[in-house]
Amino acid sequence: MPQGTLEDHLYKDGSRLAWLQLLKICKGAARGLDYLHTGTGTQHGIIHRDVKSSNVLLDENFAAKISDFGLAKIGPTNQARNLTIKSDVYAFGVVLLEVLCGRPAVDTRLDEEQMGLAPWAQDCIRKGKLNNIIDSRLRGQISSNCLKDFARIACRCLDNNPNQRPTMSEIIGKLDAILSVQERQDSSITEGKFIDKFQWFLVLK
């Protein structure tokens, strides 16, 4: 794909996707998984079984496409001891944390308590230390409400009880709401800057 993978942009030097772009990519990937789970016309849905940032491809407009169906299988999706659609949801929660934190699911260069992204990030979120986990490249781009809501939906995806995890359709709704709030805030900030510049122009004139 023209723009490579989400993983490329999260970890390769020189790539700097804006927060709004990342939100749209997450929403697009969620739509792809939702289609697999509910929109294929099969009785049980399709479980991807290998959801990760390297399997989220980006086209020329950075629209997300789910790829690599080598491990995918048609249900049953509700067997407690096998991989289910809720296993895909868990994996997608890890991808959301990768996007927010700018680090891979496992980083062996770090201390043991920080090596696994999911438990480390969840612990920080529970302790109210959200600012400690944000990718430094995204600081100043995320509104506080959007940050809390994004972290909340990621943690719900990672719930130890699969039945408590949201569906991909629910995740799309949450990401859509977060995206709308962020767009409104960014628009308001841009408008404010324009007004300030215009006022300075009038003063100087």
UniProtKB/TrEMBL annotation:
<keyword id="KW-0418">Kinase</keyword>
<keyword id="KW-0547">Nucleotide-binding</keyword>
<dbReference type="Pfam" id="PF07714">
    <property type="entry name" value="PK_Tyr_Ser-Thr"/>
</dbReference>
<dbReference type="InterPro" id="IPR000719">
    <property type="entry name" value="Prot_kinase_dom"/>
</dbReference>
<protein>
    <recommendedName>
        <fullName>non-specific serine/threonine protein kinase</fullName>
        <ecNumber>2.7.11.1</ecNumber>
    </recommendedName>
</protein>
<dbReference type="GO" id="GO:0004674">
    <property type="term" value="F:protein serine/threonine kinase activity"/>
</dbReference>
<keyword id="KW-0723">Serine/threonine-protein kinase</keyword>
<dbReference type="GO" id="GO:0009506">
    <property type="term" value="C:plasmodesma"/>
</dbReference>
<dbReference type="InterPro" id="IPR011009">
    <property type="entry name" value="Kinase-like_dom_sf"/>
</dbReference>
<dbReference type="InterPro" id="IPR008271">
    <property type="entry name" value="Ser/Thr_kinase_AS"/>
</dbReference>
<keyword id="KW-0067">ATP-binding</keyword>
<dbReference type="GO" id="GO:0005524">
    <property type="term" value="F:ATP binding"/>
</dbReference>
<dbReference type="InterPro" id="IPR001245">
    <property type="entry name" value="Ser-Thr/Tyr_kinase_cat_dom"/>
</dbReference>
<dbReference type="GO" id="GO:0004714">
    <property type="term" value="F:transmembrane receptor protein tyrosine kinase activity"/>
</dbReference>
<dbReference type="GO" id="GO:0005886">
    <property type="term" value="C:plasma membrane"/>
</dbReference>
<dbReference type="InterPro" id="IPR045272">
    <property type="entry name" value="ANXUR1/2-like"/>
</dbReference>
<keyword id="KW-0808">Transferase</keyword>
<feature type="domain" description="Protein kinase">
    <location>
        <begin position="1"/>
        <end position="179"/>
    </location>
</feature>
